[in-house]
Design a protein that fits this description.
alpha/beta; TIM Barrel; 3 domains; 12 strands; 38% helix; globular
Length: 274
């Protein structure tokens, strides 16, 4: 069995790669590194990493401003943060980072580092992405910030169909629960596909390529890429393989193996516009 490797943290914007960057990236792939995350650590590196994702199918990116790269003025930081948010619109941006605290190299601006860290956590919550953390000699403050900034609700607004939305928002405001409202222009009924006149190829595409970029679905003991894939499988519209889901139906399970299966399901996930 051929082993495939995943490089979860690379910096191919580094000038050390200027002479042979393309050759090295291609060699990585040829040697079995089939997924690479080129991590951003400031605005320029995030832009460069995002550019690489358009040049290579197997390269993904993270976008963020590390504690060692936050601008001297906070006004400039917020300007850069707006651009970082724009970069997250790239569907191959898989996280905000690297972000965090570094008290080894920078001891004089701890409070500013904390504010920059929290703002980028807020951005991650807003765009529904995980974070990549850089923490050096700052573990206590890092954990404290993560503990106090880890919860934000994502509320879906389907217009007249969301009859309880105002009540939920009121509860959130009363209890200081942070939330983001995500507006949808339509409701996709996943109950039946027979009236949509899909071809077999279109149904297969719906199953393999998800329209929900940050949602997975657990149905009848199986974890699928998204709600659409789960529903199509449940009503028998397509013949699925074991690679299409992660099963939790076994009486005895190896937790680490299941984690790896879930990671693989996430990394293989592809998206399309409905």
């Amino acid at each position: 069995m051929k082993i495939e490797y995943f490089d979860s943290h690379a910096h191919y914007d580094d000038s050390k790669f200027d002479e042979d960057r393309k050759e090295i990236i291609q060699k990585m792939y040829d040697e079995g590194v089939t997924k690479i995350i080129s991590a951003g650590y400031n605005l320029e590196s995030s832009k460069y990493a995002s550019k690489l994702t358009s040049e290579y199918d197997f390269i993904y990116t993270t976008c963020g401003i590390s504690p060692n790269d936050i601008p001297e003025g906070e006004k400039e930081f917020y300007k850069e943060l707006i651009e970082i948010k724009e970069l997250t619109k790239n569907e191959k941006c898989v996280a905000i980072g690297e972000i965090g605290l570094d008290y080894y190299w920078n001891k004089e601006n701890k409070e500013y580092q904390k504010r920059a860290f929290i703002e980028q956590i807020n951005l991650a919550n807003e765009v529904d992405l995980p974070i990549v953390i850089h923490s050096r000699d700052a573990i206590s403050d890092t954990l404290e910030i993560l503990k106090n900034n880890k919860v934000k609700l994502l509320l879906d607004d389907y217009g007249s169909l969301s009859r309880n939305l105002d009540h939920i928002v009121s509860i959130c405001n009363k209890n200081n629960i942070r939330y983001v409202i995500q507006k949808f222009s339509r409701w996709d009924d996943l109950g039946d596909f027979s009236d949509k006149n899909y071809t077999d190829q279109e149904v297969e595409r719906l199953f393999k390529y998800c329209s929900f970029a940050n949602v997975m679905s657990l149905m009848k003991g199986k974890l699928y890429r998204c709600t659409t894939a789960a529903r199509i499988a449940d009503i028998g519209y397509i013949e699925e393989s074991e690679k299409d889901y992660v099963s939790f139906l076994e009486e005895q399970m190896n937790i680490e193996e299941k984690r790896q299966e879930i990671r693989q399901l996430i990394y293989d996930k592809k998206y399309h516009k409905m």
